[in-house]
Amino acid sequence: MRREAGVPIRFLGAVVLLAITLVVGVMHGPTPIPLGTILHQLVQPNRSITSTIIWDIRLPDVLTAALVGGALAVAGAVMQALLKNPLADPYIVGASSGASLGATLAQEFMPYAGLMAPGAFVGALAAVFVSYLLSRGRGTSSMLTLILAGYAIGIILSSVTTFLMLINQQSLSTIFAWEVGGIDGTNWSQVAISFGLILLAMAVIWPLVPDMNALLLGEEQAHHMGVPVRRVQAVLLAAASLLTAAAVYLSGLIGFVGLVIPHIVRRINGPNHRTLLPLSFLVGAAFLSLANTLAQSLPVIGPVPVGLVTAFLGGPYFLYLLVQHNRRRQQGGMS
Amino acid sequence: MTETPVVLALSDVQYIWPGSERGLGPIQADIPQGRWVGLIGPNGAGKSTLLKLIAAYLTPNAGRITIQGQSIRTLSPAARARLMAFVPQTLDTSFDLTVQEVVELGRLNQLSWRERLGFSGRGDAAHIEHVMAMTGVSHLAARPFTTLSGGEAKRALLAAALIQDAPLLLLDEPTAHLDPGHALRFLELIGEMVKSGTTVLMAHHDLATVGLYTDTLWVLHEGQIAAQGPSGEILHSDIVPRIYDAPLVAIDHPRTQRPLIIFP
Fold first, then answer.
1. In this complex, how many residue pairs, one in chain A and one in chain B, have their CB atoms less than 8 Å apart?
2. Domain-embedded: residue A189
3. Which domains does chain B have, with CATH numbers?
4. Which candidate, A331, A291, A335, places its Cα nearest to that of A313?
């Protein structure tokens, strides 16, 4: 019962954490804005420069970071349940390489249309869809096949991307910068589009929470308990990919949030998705908005893409998890 | 005289293992309500495959399986789970749901939309508590499932299956890895369920146990039902030594007079 008793406290903590990181994100920047001014401008916006900075520059970026972090964390939690692997991430079945190719194609063939983000969105969804089609068939190991198909698709798409980048080296730096994953200069309409997509995906995932919990016991046991396993897997995969693509649309490829955040939340909260998913969203949102603020204001180096910061923080943590996971395996226990 | 209604019926069920010539069937069998049927046979005879076919986890190549007259193919997964529950031999998971959470998953097929959306608390709390007390897992409610011993995990899975409230219970080697004390209590519990009208099909290796507890036996040998009938008759016949290729001997239990199979 200990776990359940702590749920309200955990939610309160996560909400407070997110609120603080959002406010800090708006306060911080080339021109620091005091808290009082922010609160005043939020209630009564005017035509001052400060108001413009808050409403048109800082807020869209801060909210984008929060949305991307939350979406990636939830997508990661869903993928981990689907693949029954606590170390899976949202990009595992080809979404990242699909997004790269989509963005590269848009940049190479329509460089002035500014379609990199939509190209990435379409590419991510298409790559996952192709991986899924290839892995379908009779037999019970389709989720393992999905990982392998995603891996193979990833290699093929990456080689095409590399080829395109080599034959047109002018766009190399643009694409490279996009691939690192950064949040800079988003506008309200982009935020609104992504918010709509994320909301849609969440609405699809939420009623399937009990089925996701059953899937943690394995596909066969879930079947015996009355889960339409194949259908639920397909729907969850589509929803998680939509979340990932919406995040990629806003920010390019930001790594490790989707892997690490649900993992940490699961350690504290347990794997019940009824609380794991919303908590992952809140913590993922807080983490990425904080990481983004940090990335904007690194001393000496200056602003860097937030994807670098998350990789720098998340990479070592992932290694630590892996080593620990292995050690516990060897001791005969499970994570 | 009224006939007991048939709960499970298999007609001409055939299954070929993918990528092999070997297969199961054609199998013809049924179980009347309230019977405890033991499914015995040597390793590789197809016991687990037959259970998976009945549970609709595998699809037969031919034939028909019905539960209470309804073909399992035409039922939705949720409707099927309301008709039968399955207690697996073992369960390997790397996510530590609590015992309470695992047991509550037994209600998955009965969830209303409000419950699916998380708006109403858990209905049936009293029923869940009752089943957990009956299976002796109440004190484990908050423990992560992955930390349970073999016997505790088995009882938690039985609790989840009983929450499904299904008329047919499928058990795959229910007492494997259990010490004699836990095995006895587990089987007594199944006996209670049978007395209250549940129909049970149990794949089992321990012939002493099936002799003591089951009413009827299906003997599976090389993918075929080699014999079926009252447990006493089957165990006393020469079919048991033949299919196991061992000179096993049947004697009568000194107290219950039920047949006991022992080594020669």
1. 100
2. yes
3. 1-68+167-235 (3.40.50.300), 93-165 (no CATH)
4. A291
CATH number at residue A140: 1.10.3470.10
Q: Indicate yes or no: CB of A225 within 8 angstroms of CB of B144.
A: no
For A104, the domain range is: 2-330
Query: Which residue's entry shows tokens 């073992």?
Result: B90
Q: What is the complex's ipTM, to 2 decimals?
A: 0.93
The tens digit of pLDDT for each residue in B74-94 reads: 999 999 999 999 999 888 888
| A1 interfacial to chain B (CB closer than 8 Å) | yes
Cα of A253 to nearest chain B Cα, Å: 28
User: Is residue A335 included in any domain, yes or no?
Assistant: no
B142 to chain A, any CB pair closer than 8 A? The answer is yes
Of A84, A213, A223, the CB nearest to B97: A213
Q: Give me the number of domains chain A comprises.
A: 1
Is the pLDDT assigned to residue A118 strictly greater than 90?
A: no
Residue A235 forms part of a structural domain: yes
Residue A275's pLDDT is 94
Q: Which residues of B touch A274 (CB under 8 A)?
A: 118
User: How sure is the predictor about B1, in pLDDT bands with cuts at 50, 70 and 90?
Assistant: very low
Looking at the domain assignment, is residue A38 inside a domain?
A: yes
Give the C-alpha distances (Å, rounded to integers) separating B125 from A319, B102, B103, B121.
42, 14, 11, 9
- Asked whether the beta carbons of residue B101 and residue A272 sit closer than 8 angstroms, the reply is yes
**Cβ distance A29 to A37 under 8 Å?**
no
Closest by CA to A293, choosing from A60, A17, A26, A36, is A26
pLDDT in tens, B179-190: 888 888 899 999
pLDDT of res. A335 = 38
Q: Do B77 and A223 touch (CB under 8 A)?
A: yes
What CA–CA distance (Å, rounded) separates B258 from B213?
A: 9
